[in-house]
């Protein structure tokens, strides 16, 4: 099957949502994936719990939520890299993530060894 850019983006979003539910115990409200050059950029909305939002009202609480959420995601990074390889056929060179405690949004960037977007638009 010839995999399209849109198909891959959709599959990555679905797989990441499933991973969140299986690994973290709950999924985000919405996930959007974009393939751009040699990067896969994933935007996840609605990932914080009401208790985490309450904690984020203080600087110490906000830092604690960021630390714990980042540690959780980092501990599953090998699964995420494997998921990207299975869907795209590309290996992940590096993984970057950050979380906004104000909006409850997480951005994940998978940096690949090759320009996947160029391959898909040939």
Structure at a glance:
This protein has 122 residues and is α+β, with helices and mostly antiparallel strands. It has helices at residues 5-24, 50-55, 59-75, 77-88, 116-120, and strands at 30-36, 39-45, 92-100, 105-112.
Supply database-style keywords.
single chain; 122 residues; alpha+beta; Threonyl-tRNA Synthetase, Chain A, domain 2; four-stranded antiparallel β-sheet; 5 helices
Descriptive notes:
By secondary structure, the protein is of the alpha+beta class. The protein has one domain: Threonyl-tRNA Synthetase, Chain A, domain 2 (2-Layer Sandwich). The chain has five helices and four strands, in the order H-E-E-H-H-H-E-E-H. The protein has a four-stranded antiparallel beta sheet with strand order 1-2-4-3.
Question: Which helices and strands occur, and which strands form pairs?
Answer:
Elements (H helix, E strand, L loop, with lengths): L4 H20 L5 E7 L2 E7 L4 H6 L3 H17 L1 H12 L3 E9 L4 E8 L3 H5 L2
Helix pairs in contact: 1-4
């Amino acid at each position: 099957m010839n995999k399209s850019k849109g198909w891959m983006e959709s599959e990555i979003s679905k797989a990441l949502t499933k991973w969140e539910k299986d690994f973290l115990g709950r999924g985000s409200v919405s996930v959007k994936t974009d393939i751009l050059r040699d990067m896969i950029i994933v935007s996840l909305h609605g990932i914080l719990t009401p208790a985490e939002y309450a904690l984020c009202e203080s600087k110490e609480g906000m830092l604690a939520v960021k630390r714990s959420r980042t540690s959780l995601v980092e501990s599953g990074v090998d699964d995420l890299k494997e998921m990207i390889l299975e869907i795209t056929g590309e290996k992940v060179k590096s993984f970057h993530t950050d979380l906004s405690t104000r909006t409850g949004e997480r951005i994940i960037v998978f940096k690949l060894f090759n320009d996947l977007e160029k391959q898909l638009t040939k």
